[in-house]
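Action item from last week, closing it out:
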Amino acid sequence: PWGKKARGIKTRDKKKSSNKLIVRRKDKK
């Protein structure tokens, strides 16, 4: 489900802390 959250990162402003982690994971890919 993290992948879906990363796609909705724009609407996931409430989880900015988690967004950063997700973004980092996407950057590694």
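Closing note: The two ends are 16 Å apart (CA to CA).
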